[in-house]
Design brief:
Subcellular location: Membrane
Oligomer: single chain
InterPro entries: Palmitoyltrfase_DHHC, PFA4/ZDH16/20/ERF2-like
Catalytic activity: L-cysteinyl-[protein] + hexadecanoyl-CoA = S-hexadecanoyl-L-cysteinyl-[protein] + CoA
Structural class: mainly alpha
Distance between the termini: 91 Å
Keywords: Acyltransferase, Membrane, Signal, Transferase, Transmembrane, Transmembrane helix
Protein name: Palmitoyltransferase
Largest sheet: 2 strands, antiparallel
Amino acid sequence: MRPCPTFLLVLLRWVRLRMCARRWRYSNGNNSRLPLCVRQRWAYLKLMVNSLYYNSLTNSDVVMDSLMEPIFWMVDLLTRWFGAVFVCLVVILTSSILLIAYVGLLPLILNTYSPPWIVWHIGYGHWNLIMIVFHYYKATKTAPGYPPTVKNDIPFVSVCKKCIIPKPARTHHCGICNTCILKMDHHCPWLNNCVGHFNQRYFFCFCLSMTLGCVYCSISGRNLFLDAYSAIESTYQTPPPPYTFRDKMFHKSIIYMWVLTSTVAVALGGLTIWHAVLISRGETSIERHINNKEAERMAKHGKVYKNPFNYGRLNNWKVFFGVEKRSHWLTRVLLPSGHAPYGNGLTWDICPIRKDMIPV
């Protein structure tokens, strides 16, 4: 009784092999009739489709990134081309506000305000202006930091697939700059530069100074804006009052200044608050996304993820600003300073202890 099932099994295998052989010969016969260029392109197309599933780590995110690659490439190309345009736009808009402030508002302040208020407006306004100009210039001209391209003994966490060089911790590739950036946060088109290890402090201080300056202009110019708006609005409802050309230009300039500074204060203020939260947590914009995904992954296994670069809220700010003693809060935070950031951006101290790193 036993040989019968074995014989049937062998017979079924032989029939299956014969059928597979016939199918293979049929497919090769059909393909051989096609032109060589068509067969090569068909093989290349099948290779591209199969490459989306080349290993077990492939998921929907990898497939979507591959499909969206042409769009990403176009966005990177346009951002690279228009970077200089964005920088010129920042300079032009800021210069226009300064022109209105010096030509229209400063004489008004000197003639109508009391001496204490004159000192306050002139002192704070020029301090704010110096902070904006200094940090914007440094943020655009300071290189964010790049990993070495020659052989070295620096520890790395991965190899960049585009640069084909080792990537230290917190290093990411920028498609717009087409290079790897140390402690990369993002590529800022308004700076025409990447925000990385060596210029992140300049970027944040510029955002903070510009936000404070716009809030200052918006609050201090509110009454002037209401008066100017009422003057212009009345010309459409009642006979126009005897305003000269200079008065009309002054009113329109006040409205332009208030609308622009208020809009920038809201938009840039939100960005500044977001980066302040990231600095308090000891992470960048890219690391925020990575840490969230890692926390979700470890939560599924009943574990808690801790950011190894988080030294505590106060210590994170000290490391970010380079504060090493009490006087540095004045010389390095409240005043323009070109000191280098903490560390070299290649290696990082792992200090999860919540004690005070810098006794300030």
